[in-house]
Amino acid sequence: MKITAVHVDTLELAMEEPFVIASSALSTGPCDLVRVETDEGVVGIGEACPAYEFTGDTLWSVQDVIAEYLAPAVVGRDPFDIEAIHRCWERELFMVGNPAARAGLEMALWDLKGKALGRPLYDLVGGRSRTALQEVVALGWDEPAVLATKVGGMRAEGVRIFKVKVGDAPERDEQRVAAVREAAGPEALITVDANQGWWDAKTAIRAIRLLEQHGIEFVEQPVRMDDLGAARFVRGHVDVAIALDESVRGPREALACVKTGACDMFVVKLMKTGGILNALKVNAIAEAAGITVMMGNMGESSIGLSAHFHLNLALANAVHCDADLPGRPGGLMHDIGRGLRQEVGDGISWIDVPDAPGLGIEIVEEHVERQRVARRW
After folding, report:
1. Is the whole model's pTM more than 0.90, yes or no?
2. Is 115 annotated as catalytic?
């Protein structure tokens, strides 16, 4: 089997309402849909979801990098040779950065590989280590009363794990978390994510001490991503676990976090690591160091989310799944993928990961067509 062509559709996915965090506010979801064709008629799909504030990628840089560099380097190759393709990008093209572009194209190769073998993605990366994933809902910056109303409704639908975006003034953050705790009840699990918003160690420590009284499980990225010393200092002065997200951009950064003793958990996102292969390497470093991981996301459609879910299902070291379904209120209006489902059992909302070959996701072509965008510059 040989790769014959690579195509990219550049989209802006409409959202029901803006999603606001410490570092950005999104009213649409940037999405580059990647399709890889082969001489045997098998087509793999992947998704790049760029976030310039985290990785430097943009909607158009992804398209350009794939068209000019990544795609020409894979056409004519065997799509199973993913490690060799990575080496080519890094050592022959001297590719620096552009992780979302690499992740989107590499995701399509894994999907293609699964389809060719007739096996779901989780079987290609270790098989099932668990049977299902609990749904986690992320809550952006809203007024406490609005958050309480949202959480109350979702608790009735079986959601019992909530991730609250913080990184604002510590007192306002406490008001948000307190409102979520009251609405969610004592049995719910609550995590918080500052997205670097507290910036320095002293502010982060003051904020975390205010939030600890509300029973939070862990705190994500309390300080700047490039200040591992500050993260280590915070970790040593609070009682809850510290997770690092923006700081863990790939295997090298993961190793630096281990050496520094900066955290208790890595948040692994394919758009940061540059794809599934590097995500597996980050997890291996974490597991060897006694650090757990949480598979995250950057607001992808069902295509990108499915890849994260498959890894979360396979990796025994991935103790949390940070992802809610795109059809949740406030999420995507027109999801470009079909195949992810929610099931409620014993009063808990579970995500049913597809067991069809590859990602197990079917493209909704009419939703692709209606959200395609042209370059404005």
Report:
1. yes
2. no
Active-site residue identified among 269, 272, 322, 335: 269
**pLDDT tens for residues 206-234?**
999 999 999 999 999 999 999 999 999 99
pLDDT tens figures, 129-176? 998 899 999 999 999 999 999 999 999 999 999 999 999 999 999 999
Active-site entry in 245, 253, 322, 324: 245
Instruction: Give yes or no: 150 in active site.
Output: no
193 in catalytic set: yes
Closest CA to 166 of 196, 202, 206: 196
Of the listed 47, 111, 220, 324, which one is catalytic? 220
Residue 377 has pLDDT above 70, yes or no: no
- Given the residues 32, 135, 173, 193, the one annotated as active site: 193
Catalytic-residue membership of 202: no
User: Angle at Cα 282 formed by Cα 279 and Cα 288, nearest 5°?
Assistant: 140
**Torsion over CA: 103, 105, 107, 110 (sign):** negative
Angle (CA) 7-248-244 rounded to 5° is 130
Q: Is 165 a catalytic residue?
A: yes
